[in-house]
Amino acid sequence: MFGPLGISLAPQVRASKTLTRWIKPFANWYVNLSGYRKMGLRYDDLLVEERDDVQRALGRLTERENYDRTFRFKRASQASVLHANLPKEQWIKPEEDIRYLRPHVEEVVKEDNERKVWDAISVERRK
C-alpha cells in the first residue's frame, strides 16, 4: 500500500475481480483524459525528478532507456510548442506504457533502508 512512489491501492484492487471490473473503466478514462500518451510520454516520465531517489534511479537506466526517455521528452516538448498532440500512430499504446523506472526507484529505496539499518547498529565490546 505504501511504496516509494506514494500510496497505492492497486494491489488490493487487482486482487479483487469485482473491484477491478468496476474501477478499470474509470482508470482507463482518467489515463485518456490526462493526455500524456497523446504527447508520446510514458507514466514513469511524469515522476518528479527532483526527488533524490528518482535522480539516483535515473542514473541506473541503460543507455538505450536514457536515449528513449530523452527522445520522448523532446518530441513532447515540440508537440507542446505547436499546441497539438502527436499523430495518432505515434501515441503510446497501453501495452507500451510499461513502468521502466519504478523497479530502479524501489531498488534505491530498499538500499537506503538497508543502509539506515546498518548505520544504526551499535557494536559493543565483549567483556
From TrEMBL:
GO terms for biological process: mitochondrial electron transport, ubiquinol to cytochrome c. InterPro entries: QCR7, QCR7_sf. GO terms for cellular component: mitochondrial inner membrane; respiratory chain complex III. Keywords: Electron transport, Membrane, Mitochondrion, Mitochondrion inner membrane, Respiratory chain, Transport. The keyword Membrane applies. Its main location: mitochondrion. This is Cytochrome b-c1 complex subunit 7.
